[in-house]
Request: fold
Amino acid sequence: MLYREELLKLNHGISDYVEQVVRKNMANQKPHVVGMYNLLEEHGKEKLSELCRKCAERNLYGIDYLKAYLEDEDPEEETTDSQEELTLTGLPDQTEVDRSMETYERLAQGGGF
Amino acid sequence: MDGMLKKLRLPRIREVYDQRIDQAAEEDWGYRKFLKHLLQEEVTNRHQNRLERRKNRAGFPFEKTLNQFEFNFRPKLKKRVFQTYTEPRFVTEGKDLILIGSPGTGKTHLSVGIGLAQIKNDFKVLFKNVQSLAGELKGAERKDEKDELHKELTKVDLLIMDEFGYLPLKEELGPFLYELIAGRYEEKSTIITSNKSLNEWGKTLRDNSLAQALIDRLIHHGEVYYLEGDSYRMKGKQDLLAKNEESSDTDNVR
Reply:
Protein backbone atom coordinates (compact mmCIF):
# COMPACT_ATOMS: atom_id res chain seq x y z
CA MET A 1 0.00 0.00 0.00
CA LEU A 2 1.49 3.28 -1.15
CA TYR A 3 0.08 5.35 1.72
CA ARG A 4 1.72 3.05 4.26
CA GLU A 5 5.07 3.24 2.49
CA GLU A 6 4.91 7.03 2.57
CA LEU A 7 4.09 7.05 6.30
CA LEU A 8 6.87 4.59 7.10
CA LYS A 9 9.41 6.97 5.54
CA LEU A 10 8.53 9.92 7.81
CA ASN A 11 10.26 9.27 11.13
CA HIS A 12 10.82 6.59 13.74
CA GLY A 13 7.85 7.59 15.93
CA ILE A 14 5.36 7.60 13.08
CA SER A 15 6.69 4.42 11.48
CA ASP A 16 6.58 2.55 14.82
CA TYR A 17 3.01 3.71 15.31
CA VAL A 18 2.01 2.67 11.78
CA GLU A 19 3.56 -0.76 12.30
CA GLN A 20 1.61 -1.27 15.52
CA VAL A 21 -1.65 -0.12 13.94
CA VAL A 22 -1.17 -2.45 10.98
CA ARG A 23 -0.24 -5.36 13.22
CA LYS A 24 -3.33 -4.83 15.37
CA ASN A 25 -5.60 -4.41 12.36
CA MET A 26 -4.18 -6.87 9.83
CA ALA A 27 -7.54 -7.52 8.22
CA ASN A 28 -8.79 -3.95 8.39
CA GLN A 29 -5.78 -1.66 8.07
CA LYS A 30 -6.90 0.51 5.16
CA PRO A 31 -9.09 3.07 7.03
CA HIS A 32 -6.34 3.54 9.61
CA VAL A 33 -3.50 3.99 7.10
CA VAL A 34 -5.49 6.22 4.75
CA GLY A 35 -6.78 8.20 7.74
CA MET A 36 -3.24 8.75 9.00
CA TYR A 37 -2.14 9.84 5.54
CA ASN A 38 -5.01 12.35 5.45
CA LEU A 39 -3.92 13.70 8.85
CA LEU A 40 -0.43 14.12 7.45
CA GLU A 41 -1.73 16.04 4.43
CA GLU A 42 -4.03 18.26 6.49
CA HIS A 43 -1.91 18.92 9.57
CA GLY A 44 1.67 18.13 8.61
CA LYS A 45 4.37 15.80 9.85
CA GLU A 46 5.01 17.57 13.19
CA LYS A 47 1.40 17.37 14.29
CA LEU A 48 1.05 13.73 13.18
CA SER A 49 4.25 12.92 15.02
CA GLU A 50 2.95 14.56 18.21
CA LEU A 51 -0.38 12.70 17.97
CA CYS A 52 1.36 9.36 17.41
CA ARG A 53 3.62 9.98 20.41
CA LYS A 54 0.73 10.87 22.71
CA CYS A 55 -1.32 7.86 21.65
CA ALA A 56 1.59 5.41 21.74
CA GLU A 57 2.43 6.52 25.30
CA ARG A 58 -1.09 5.49 26.30
CA ASN A 59 -1.19 2.27 24.26
CA LEU A 60 -3.90 3.71 22.00
CA TYR A 61 -3.49 2.49 18.45
CA GLY A 62 -5.78 3.51 15.61
CA ILE A 63 -6.98 6.45 13.57
CA ASP A 64 -9.90 7.11 15.94
CA TYR A 65 -7.55 7.69 18.88
CA LEU A 66 -5.37 10.04 16.81
CA LYS A 67 -8.48 12.00 15.84
CA ALA A 68 -9.62 12.13 19.47
CA TYR A 69 -6.31 13.74 20.46
CA LEU A 70 -6.47 16.07 17.46
CA GLU A 71 -9.90 17.36 18.47
CA ASP A 72 -9.21 17.52 22.17
CA GLU A 73 -5.82 18.28 23.74
CA ASP A 74 -6.72 16.11 26.72
CA PRO A 75 -9.53 13.64 25.95
CA GLU A 76 -8.67 11.78 29.15
CA GLU A 77 -9.77 14.69 31.30
CA GLU A 78 -12.65 13.63 33.52
CA THR A 79 -15.67 15.67 34.45
CA THR A 80 -16.09 16.43 38.17
CA ASP A 81 -19.37 14.55 38.61
CA SER A 82 -17.85 11.25 37.51
CA GLN A 83 -14.81 11.29 39.80
CA GLU A 84 -16.44 9.03 42.32
CA GLU A 85 -15.95 5.31 41.79
CA LEU A 86 -18.92 3.00 41.32
CA THR A 87 -19.65 1.00 44.44
CA LEU A 88 -19.53 -2.53 43.10
CA THR A 89 -18.49 -5.11 45.66
CA GLY A 90 -16.10 -8.02 45.15
CA LEU A 91 -14.26 -6.53 42.19
CA PRO A 92 -10.50 -6.32 41.73
CA ASP A 93 -8.99 -2.90 42.17
CA GLN A 94 -8.13 -0.86 39.07
CA THR A 95 -4.46 -1.22 40.03
CA GLU A 96 -4.79 -4.93 39.26
CA VAL A 97 -5.87 -4.05 35.73
CA ASP A 98 -3.51 -1.14 35.20
CA ARG A 99 0.11 -1.56 34.42
CA SER A 100 2.37 1.47 34.26
CA MET A 101 4.53 2.11 31.22
CA GLU A 102 7.66 1.52 33.30
CA THR A 103 6.70 -2.10 33.83
CA TYR A 104 6.41 -2.61 30.09
CA GLU A 105 9.79 -1.05 29.65
CA ARG A 106 11.25 -3.33 32.35
CA LEU A 107 9.78 -6.37 30.62
CA ALA A 108 11.09 -5.20 27.26
CA GLN A 109 14.53 -5.00 28.86
CA GLY A 110 14.13 -8.61 29.96
CA GLY A 111 13.34 -7.88 33.63
CA GLY A 112 9.81 -9.33 33.83
CA PHE A 113 6.88 -7.95 35.80
CA MET B 1 -26.23 -25.05 -20.48
CA ASP B 2 -23.88 -22.25 -19.35
CA GLY B 3 -26.41 -19.56 -20.20
CA MET B 4 -29.27 -21.29 -18.41
CA LEU B 5 -27.21 -21.99 -15.29
CA LYS B 6 -26.13 -18.36 -15.28
CA LYS B 7 -29.75 -17.23 -15.56
CA LEU B 8 -30.73 -19.57 -12.73
CA ARG B 9 -27.80 -18.28 -10.67
CA LEU B 10 -26.18 -21.64 -10.08
CA PRO B 11 -22.50 -20.67 -10.36
CA ARG B 12 -21.00 -23.72 -8.67
CA ILE B 13 -22.91 -26.18 -10.88
CA ARG B 14 -21.89 -24.11 -13.89
CA GLU B 15 -18.27 -24.40 -12.78
CA VAL B 16 -18.20 -28.16 -12.22
CA TYR B 17 -20.91 -29.83 -14.29
CA ASP B 18 -18.54 -30.81 -17.12
CA GLN B 19 -16.17 -32.57 -14.74
CA ARG B 20 -19.06 -34.23 -12.91
CA ILE B 21 -20.54 -35.57 -16.17
CA ASP B 22 -17.18 -37.24 -16.90
CA GLN B 23 -16.91 -38.47 -13.31
CA ALA B 24 -20.46 -39.86 -13.41
CA ALA B 25 -19.69 -41.73 -16.61
CA GLU B 26 -16.43 -43.13 -15.23
CA GLU B 27 -17.88 -44.17 -11.89
CA ASP B 28 -21.21 -45.28 -13.28
CA TRP B 29 -23.40 -42.91 -11.19
CA GLY B 30 -27.17 -43.09 -11.49
CA TYR B 31 -29.23 -39.98 -12.42
CA ARG B 32 -30.29 -39.47 -8.79
CA LYS B 33 -26.71 -39.60 -7.46
CA PHE B 34 -25.47 -37.27 -10.19
CA LEU B 35 -28.18 -34.68 -9.53
CA LYS B 36 -27.78 -34.91 -5.76
CA HIS B 37 -24.02 -34.43 -6.09
CA LEU B 38 -24.39 -31.28 -8.19
CA LEU B 39 -27.05 -29.76 -5.94
CA GLN B 40 -25.03 -30.58 -2.84
CA GLU B 41 -22.03 -28.73 -4.26
CA GLU B 42 -24.17 -25.68 -5.01
CA VAL B 43 -25.66 -25.68 -1.51
CA THR B 44 -22.24 -26.09 0.16
CA ASN B 45 -20.75 -23.35 -1.99
CA ARG B 46 -23.57 -20.93 -1.15
CA HIS B 47 -23.18 -21.66 2.54
CA GLN B 48 -19.43 -21.02 2.41
CA ASN B 49 -19.94 -17.80 0.46
CA ARG B 50 -22.48 -16.63 3.01
CA LEU B 51 -20.07 -17.31 5.87
CA GLU B 52 -17.30 -15.50 4.02
CA ARG B 53 -19.57 -12.47 3.44
CA ARG B 54 -20.57 -12.43 7.11
CA LYS B 55 -16.93 -12.63 8.13
CA ASN B 56 -16.07 -9.67 5.89
CA ARG B 57 -19.04 -7.64 7.14
CA ALA B 58 -18.15 -8.39 10.78
CA GLY B 59 -15.13 -6.08 10.46
CA PHE B 60 -12.69 -8.11 12.56
CA PRO B 61 -9.30 -6.42 12.90
CA PHE B 62 -7.62 -9.81 12.35
CA GLU B 63 -8.62 -13.44 12.06
CA LYS B 64 -7.55 -15.58 14.98
CA THR B 65 -9.45 -18.55 16.33
CA LEU B 66 -9.88 -19.58 19.94
CA ASN B 67 -7.64 -22.58 19.23
CA GLN B 68 -4.81 -20.20 18.41
CA PHE B 69 -5.08 -18.58 21.84
CA GLU B 70 -2.29 -19.59 24.20
CA PHE B 71 -4.33 -20.71 27.18
CA ASN B 72 -1.21 -22.03 28.90
CA PHE B 73 -0.01 -18.42 29.05
CA ARG B 74 -3.23 -17.53 30.94
CA PRO B 75 -3.53 -20.43 33.41
CA LYS B 76 -6.56 -18.88 35.12
CA LEU B 77 -8.57 -18.99 31.88
CA LYS B 78 -9.92 -22.42 31.11
CA LYS B 79 -10.10 -23.31 27.44
CA ARG B 80 -13.02 -25.63 28.11
CA VAL B 81 -15.02 -22.78 29.64
CA PHE B 82 -14.24 -20.41 26.78
CA GLN B 83 -15.22 -23.04 24.24
CA THR B 84 -18.75 -22.91 25.65
CA TYR B 85 -18.97 -19.32 24.36
CA THR B 86 -18.44 -20.66 20.85
CA GLU B 87 -21.57 -22.80 21.13
CA PRO B 88 -24.77 -21.53 19.48
CA ARG B 89 -26.58 -21.27 22.83
CA PHE B 90 -24.31 -18.41 23.90
CA VAL B 91 -26.09 -16.38 21.22
CA THR B 92 -29.53 -17.98 21.29
CA GLU B 93 -29.75 -17.42 25.06
CA GLY B 94 -28.63 -13.79 24.72
CA LYS B 95 -25.64 -14.14 27.03
CA ASP B 96 -22.97 -11.49 27.50
CA LEU B 97 -19.28 -11.50 28.23
CA ILE B 98 -16.99 -8.82 29.63
CA LEU B 99 -13.23 -9.24 29.28
CA ILE B 100 -11.12 -6.87 31.37
CA GLY B 101 -7.37 -6.54 31.43
CA SER B 102 -4.46 -4.33 30.52
CA PRO B 103 -3.41 -3.97 26.87
CA GLY B 104 -1.87 -7.06 25.31
CA THR B 105 -3.51 -9.65 27.55
CA GLY B 106 -5.48 -11.23 24.70
CA LYS B 107 -8.94 -9.72 25.18
CA THR B 108 -9.39 -8.86 21.51
CA HIS B 109 -8.06 -12.24 20.39
CA LEU B 110 -10.56 -14.07 22.61
CA SER B 111 -13.46 -11.94 21.38
CA VAL B 112 -12.49 -12.39 17.71
CA GLY B 113 -12.14 -16.15 18.26
CA ILE B 114 -15.63 -16.36 19.72
CA GLY B 115 -16.98 -14.11 16.95
CA LEU B 116 -15.49 -16.26 14.19
CA ALA B 117 -16.93 -19.40 15.78
CA GLN B 118 -20.39 -17.83 16.01
CA ILE B 119 -20.26 -16.88 12.32
CA LYS B 120 -19.62 -20.56 11.59
CA ASN B 121 -22.75 -21.24 13.65
CA ASP B 122 -24.55 -19.05 11.09
CA PHE B 123 -25.00 -15.96 13.27
CA LYS B 124 -24.47 -12.34 12.26
CA VAL B 125 -21.56 -10.79 14.15
CA LEU B 126 -20.29 -7.21 14.24
CA PHE B 127 -16.98 -6.07 15.70
CA LYS B 128 -16.72 -2.40 16.69
CA ASN B 129 -13.93 -0.50 18.34
CA VAL B 130 -15.69 1.79 20.85
CA GLN B 131 -13.61 4.82 19.86
CA SER B 132 -14.49 4.21 16.24
CA LEU B 133 -18.15 3.94 17.21
CA ALA B 134 -17.83 7.30 18.98
CA GLY B 135 -16.49 8.72 15.70
CA GLU B 136 -19.37 7.23 13.72
CA LEU B 137 -21.89 8.63 16.16
CA LYS B 138 -20.29 12.04 15.92
CA GLY B 139 -20.40 11.81 12.12
CA ALA B 140 -24.10 10.91 12.18
CA GLU B 141 -25.47 14.41 12.52
CA ARG B 142 -29.12 13.79 11.67
CA LYS B 143 -31.40 11.81 13.97
CA ASP B 144 -32.26 9.29 11.25
CA GLU B 145 -28.54 8.57 10.74
CA LYS B 146 -28.15 7.92 14.47
CA ASP B 147 -31.25 5.72 14.42
CA GLU B 148 -29.84 3.78 11.48
CA LEU B 149 -26.57 3.19 13.34
CA HIS B 150 -28.51 2.15 16.46
CA LYS B 151 -30.64 -0.26 14.41
CA GLU B 152 -27.59 -1.79 12.74
CA LEU B 153 -25.94 -2.43 16.10
CA THR B 154 -29.10 -3.70 17.78
CA LYS B 155 -30.05 -6.27 15.19
CA VAL B 156 -26.79 -8.26 14.95
CA ASP B 157 -26.80 -11.56 16.84
CA LEU B 158 -23.43 -10.93 18.48
CA LEU B 159 -21.98 -7.47 18.97
CA ILE B 160 -18.35 -7.17 20.06
CA MET B 161 -17.35 -3.78 21.45
CA ASP B 162 -13.60 -3.57 21.75
CA GLU B 163 -11.44 -1.24 23.85
CA PHE B 164 -14.20 0.25 25.97
CA GLY B 165 -12.76 2.77 28.40
CA TYR B 166 -9.45 3.36 26.66
CA LEU B 167 -10.59 6.99 26.55
CA PRO B 168 -13.48 8.59 28.44
CA LEU B 169 -16.44 8.87 26.09
CA LYS B 170 -18.18 12.02 24.98
CA GLU B 171 -21.40 12.62 26.91
CA GLU B 172 -23.70 11.64 24.05
CA LEU B 173 -22.22 8.16 23.67
CA GLY B 174 -23.20 7.05 27.20
CA PRO B 175 -26.97 7.16 26.67
CA PHE B 176 -26.49 5.70 23.17
CA LEU B 177 -24.59 2.72 24.61
CA TYR B 178 -27.13 2.27 27.36
CA GLU B 179 -30.02 2.22 24.87
CA LEU B 180 -28.07 -0.22 22.76
CA ILE B 181 -27.39 -2.63 25.61
CA ALA B 182 -30.95 -2.28 26.90
CA GLY B 183 -32.27 -2.98 23.39
CA ARG B 184 -30.19 -6.13 23.13
CA TYR B 185 -30.85 -7.28 26.70
CA GLU B 186 -31.92 -10.95 26.93
CA GLU B 187 -32.34 -11.11 23.15
CA LYS B 188 -28.87 -10.71 21.66
CA SER B 189 -25.33 -11.33 22.85
CA THR B 190 -22.71 -8.72 23.53
CA ILE B 191 -19.00 -9.00 24.28
CA ILE B 192 -17.18 -6.00 25.70
CA THR B 193 -13.42 -5.77 26.14
CA SER B 194 -11.98 -3.09 28.41
CA ASN B 195 -8.85 -2.06 30.24
CA LYS B 196 -10.96 -0.61 33.03
CA SER B 197 -12.25 -2.46 36.05
CA LEU B 198 -16.07 -2.33 36.25
CA ASN B 199 -16.00 0.18 39.08
CA GLU B 200 -14.17 2.61 36.77
CA TRP B 201 -16.85 2.52 34.09
CA GLY B 202 -18.67 5.50 35.60
CA LYS B 203 -15.65 7.65 34.81
CA THR B 204 -15.54 6.31 31.24
CA LEU B 205 -19.22 7.02 30.68
CA ARG B 206 -19.02 10.25 32.75
CA ASP B 207 -22.15 9.07 34.57
CA ASN B 208 -22.21 6.61 37.46
CA SER B 209 -25.92 5.78 37.40
CA LEU B 210 -25.81 5.10 33.69
CA ALA B 211 -22.75 2.86 34.14
CA GLN B 212 -24.47 1.01 36.98
CA ALA B 213 -27.58 0.40 34.87
CA LEU B 214 -25.49 -0.73 31.91
CA ILE B 215 -23.43 -3.15 34.02
CA ASP B 216 -26.60 -4.53 35.66
CA ARG B 217 -27.96 -5.53 32.30
CA LEU B 218 -24.70 -6.93 31.05
CA ILE B 219 -23.94 -9.11 34.05
CA HIS B 220 -27.49 -10.35 34.60
CA HIS B 221 -26.92 -13.03 31.96
CA GLY B 222 -23.25 -12.43 31.51
CA GLU B 223 -19.85 -13.25 32.89
CA VAL B 224 -16.86 -11.09 33.66
CA TYR B 225 -13.23 -12.14 33.34
CA TYR B 226 -10.23 -10.26 34.58
CA LEU B 227 -7.28 -11.22 32.43
CA GLU B 228 -4.08 -10.99 34.35
CA GLY B 229 -0.48 -11.72 33.59
CA ASP B 230 2.19 -10.67 31.17
CA SER B 231 1.33 -8.95 27.95
CA TYR B 232 1.35 -11.15 24.85
CA ARG B 233 3.10 -8.46 22.88
CA MET B 234 5.78 -8.25 25.54
CA LYS B 235 5.99 -12.02 25.60
CA GLY B 236 6.60 -11.95 21.86
CA LYS B 237 9.32 -9.41 22.42
CA GLN B 238 10.82 -11.49 25.22
CA ASP B 239 10.81 -14.60 23.01
CA LEU B 240 12.57 -12.60 20.36
CA LEU B 241 15.12 -11.31 22.86
CA ALA B 242 15.69 -14.82 24.17
CA LYS B 243 16.12 -16.09 20.62
CA ASN B 244 18.58 -13.33 19.83
CA GLU B 245 20.50 -14.05 23.03
CA GLU B 246 20.50 -17.74 22.17
CA SER B 247 21.78 -17.11 18.66
CA SER B 248 24.47 -14.71 19.94
CA ASP B 249 25.52 -17.39 22.48
CA THR B 250 25.73 -19.89 19.66
CA ASP B 251 27.72 -17.39 17.63
CA ASN B 252 30.09 -16.99 20.58
CA VAL B 253 30.56 -20.77 20.80
CA ARG B 254 31.50 -20.85 17.17
Q: What stands out?
A: Chain B touches chain A at residues 59-63, 100-104, 108, 129, 131-132, 134-135, 166-168, 195-203, 205-208, 211-212, 215, 226, 228, 230-231, 234, 237-238, 241 (CB under 8 Å).
